[in-house]
Design a protein that fits this description.
The chain is 51% helix and 13% strand. It contains twelve helices and ten strands. Strand 2 and strand 3 form a beta hairpin. Helix 1 packs antiparallel against helix 2, helix 1 packs parallel to helix 3 and helix 2 packs across helix 3. It is globular and about 65 Å long.
């Protein structure tokens, strides 16, 4: 096996927290070679699934009744298995086609153990690798811990979905799937099933007659609106979480990780954006110094 393959397998063996770390790295071609990025991309929705018996038991525990009373039908084979949960296709009693996200059993204890290990590694880095202090590894682990703990609360994720639906309600280039609140619980999230093509499947997009330039422009507009209009953004936009529907409509999924920006940082980001458009190097350097992103 190649080194990238061994790294990917090591992350899988180390479990959910490290899989999440690998997912973050897979979206950073500025840090890793193409071979590493390509291999770590497999962690995005190709994680080994957990047994259907565990899925059934967790749903029944969350809703206090048999699975057959909660859903009209429920596919045993998962659509995708990720680091914290896996997704199954189902149909509600009212006949709606849905995707049901079910949390991995015992995940909280595993994550808390992994966070302690990461804290130990980060502290060692800061103590013994002087050049690492600029990147503040301990603070990075603290932020990662806050994010992953929030991501395990599926009720919070349901609220995030509702907020995004409100923001993009009048936008014909973006579609946010609906959350089904009567079928949501802290460890189970039910949302509208999306019939789309993953945004990274370029050949499928081409075959379906999609316009890649239109999709790219819509994607850029989506991000700019999130940052400059709503100050509220999807913080896990890897290719496994973004689909394209008919007429080049972008449909993000998985709203467990979101970011919130305050007025001052949005103002500074506006200056960064303006400086890039104007190709004004001095303006860009000054704002990066003001934000504290450069020494």
């Amino acid at each position: 096996l190649s080194v990238p393959e061994r790294v990917r397998l090591a992350f899988e063996e180390l479990g959910p927290t490290f899989i999440k770390f690998g997912q973050v790295l897979s979206s950073r071609p500025d840090l890793l070679s193409t071979e590493f990025v390509k291999e770590l991309t497999k962690l995005q929705d190709s994680v080994p699934p957990f047994p259907f018996g565990d899925v059934e038991a967790l749903i029944e525990a969350q809703f206090g009744r048999p699975l057959t009373e909660v859903f009209a039908s429920f596919e045993e084979e998962p659509l995708a298995a990720a680091s914290l949960a896996q997704v199954h296709r189902a149909r509600t009693k009212a006949g709606d086609e849905v995707a049901v996200k079910v949390q991995r059993p015992g995940i909280e204890e595993i994550i808390e153990t992994d966070i302690r290990i990461l804290h130990g590694l980060a502290a060692l880095c800061e103590r013994h690798l002087l050049e690492s202090r600029y990147y503040e590894p301990v603070r990075i682990v603290d932020e990662f811990a806050r994010t992953i703990r929030r991501e395990m609360d599926f009720v919070r994720e349901g609220r995030n979905i509702d907020r995004f639906r409100k923001y993009f309600a009048g936008d014909e280039t973006v579609y946010i799937p609906k959350a089904f609140w009567d079928l949501n619980a802290p460890k189970v999230l039910t949302m509208e099933y999306i019939h789309g093509i993953k945004i990274s499947e370029l050949e499928q997009l081409q075959a379906a007659g999609m316009d890649r330039k239109t999709i790219a422009i819509s994607g850029a507009n989506l991000i700019l609106k999130e940052i400059f209009e709503f100050h509220f953004f999807h913080a896990d936009p890897h290719p496994g979480n973004i689909f394209v529907l008919e007429n080049n409509v972008i449909a993000p999924v998985d709203f467990g990780m979101i970011g919130i920006l305050d007025e001052e940082i949005v103002r500074q980001l506006g200056i960064v954006f303006t400086a890039i458009v104007k190709k004004d190097v001095d303006m860009l350097v000054n704002v990066l110094l003001n934000i504290g992103l450069a020494p």
